[in-house]
From TrEMBL:
GO terms for cellular component: cytoplasm; DNA-directed RNA polymerase complex; primosome complex. This is DNA primase. A zinc finger (CHC2-type) spans 39-63. It is an enzyme of class 2 (transferase). Belongs to the DnaG primase family.
């Protein structure tokens, strides 16, 4: 338990610095004496989320959510009051004294909390194995140092190593009282009848953090060259980890994303590490998965500006750009950077360093439409049919942009690039929008189930016993003479 005096101190500190708390999650802009931003609790294009430093509260006039800094953390991170108080205590350097939870208390924690405890334990285990065992130092640490990563970066991201032994983590975790049920549910252990094994054995470990910095999953890279073994392996989907909703490095990047008003999106774990080592920290990775709407909206909480950085693999680029239309559809300002052939963000960041890399990005990033046109134009080979298909593809991309002014700018640019008159492009966009509207109109509306009242029973009176000649008439609704 936390004593009430400590809770009061933390609440007072959070109330006086609520803007500081919420700005870690939302890109806030001053509006008079208050601050305004896009609400993190529902999708909106026009900001309606207000933070009042004077009153120490927040309020969204779109979805209605509001409260103080503690309420915000509880709602945003889906955590308990105690967890929110602990988080704010760490932020404001207020020491919290509490008793260690008893085994009985741990046993009664819900499934989600138990899984979070297990992943936190595993992260510490992997980090200790990396630095404190012979195998970890020679294999795991040797790999990271061979890749050129400094110790401060290794510790910043809590990198680790899972030993080659089949069930080392599983056995030790169970010895320390962690249940196999939660080791299995978090994906740390594979359990089949009497067989138990560590999922990530023989791999270097990249912990995946939530927005609040809690470890919710892991990525592991195998160090042996085995064609039958996947190079990278991620935790499976679970109660605490949904890969489509999180980005690697978001916890370490979120504050700088707000300060720089820009996010750099790369593909892999080591790309993020190398950018951080170079001194560029507003960078996140999709971890090899196709970009999702949830991931885009996660970035949009901190800044609407994103630069997507690709290495020089043409096939990979063409596969990726199909999903980037989603970024434009969410109203983001997108730029794209194609690195020189043979380079990836990891190697390029190590080669150039911070200043030269930032200058290279500024000099070579381009808007998404121009980039997509230049990439796909190579496949047309002056074929008029393919060129027409390319124009239609570009027009479809432009049509999803919600802002009419931005859309008009892109139409003008496309007109110049493809040598097509603007009215033609506007006509095509009109057709696309009309088809979309017609399709949506034909889609059956989802109606709530109609709960019909049960048929009312009508009581038919019996003939009057005192006079058999009198009967009940349904037509007249009264007794009549027969």
């Amino acid at each position: 338990m936390i004593d009430s005096a400590t809770v009061d101190r933390i609440m007072e500190a959070a109330q006086g610095q609520i803007t500081d708390v919420i700005s870690e999650y939302v890109n806030l802009k001053r509006r008079g004496i208050n601050y305004i931003g896009n609400c993190p609790f529902h999708n909106e294009k026009t900001p309606s989320f207000i933070v009042s430093p004077h009153k120490g509260i927040f309020k969204c006039f779109g979805c209605g959510k509001g409260g103080n800094a503690v309420n915000f953390l509880m709602e945003h991170e889906q955590i308990t009051f105690v967890e929110a108080i602990k988080s704010l205590g760490r932020k404001f350097h207020i020491h919290i004294e509490e008793r260690e939870p008893s085994p009985e208390a741990l046993q009664h924690q819900n499934e989600r909390e138990s899984m979070m405890v297990v992943t936190e334990y595993a992260a510490k285990y992997f980090a200790q194995t990396l630095y404190e065992t012979d195998e970890g130092q020679s294999v795991g640490l040797g790999y990271f140092r061979q890749r050129g990563f400094r110790d401060d970066i290794i510790k910043k991201f809590q990198l680790g190593y899972s030993p080659e032994q089949r069930d080392a983590l599983t056995r030790q975790a169970q010895q320390h009282g962690y249940k196999i049920e939660f080791l299995e549910k978090t994906g740390l252990s594979i359990v089949r009848d009497d067989y138990k094994a560590d999922r990530f054995r023989g791999r270097v470990i990249f912990p995946i953090h939530s927005l609040s910095g809690k470890v919710i999953a892991f990525g592991g890279r195998v160090l042996k060259s085995d064609a039958k073994t996947a190079k990278y392996l991620n935790s499976p989907e679970s109660e605490i980890y949904h890969k489509s909703r999180i980005l690697y490095g978001i916890y370490q990047a979120r504050q700088e994303m707000v300060r720089q008003d820009r996010t750099y999106l790369v593909e892999g774990y080591t790309d993020v590490l190398s950018f951080h080592q170079a001194g560029i920290t507003n960078v996140v990775a999709s971890s090899g998965t196709a970009l999702t709407v949830d991931q885009i909206r996660l970035m949009a909480r901190f800044t609407p500006n994103i630069t997507i950085i690709y290495d020089g693999d043409p096939a990979g680029i063409k596969a990726s750009i199909r999903g980037i239309d989603l970024v434009l559809e969410e109203g983001m300002n997108v730029k794209v950077l194609l690195l020189p052939e043979g380079e990836d963000p990891d190697s390029f960041a190590k080669k150039l360093g911070k200043e030269k890399l930032l200058q290279y990005i500024r000099d070579n990033e381009t808007d998404f439409i121009k980039f997509k046109t230049s990439i796909l134009l190579e496949d047309t080979h002056n074929d008029p049919i393919k060129r027409a298909q390319l124009i239609q593809d570009i027009v479809r991309t432009i049509s999803v942009i919600p802002d009419s002014i931005v859309r008009a700018v892109y139409i003008k640019e496309c007109s110049k690039l493809m040598n097509v008159e603007e009215p033609v492009l506007y006509t095509e966009i009109g057709k696309i929008k009309k088809k979309k509207q017609e399709k949506e109109a034909l889609r059956p509306a989802v109606r709530p189930p109609v709960h019909e009242a049960p048929p009312r029973r009508i009581r038919i009176p019996r003939p009057c016993p005192s006079s058999p000649a009198i009967r009940w008439s349904r037509k007249n609704g009264k007794y009549c003479a027969s």
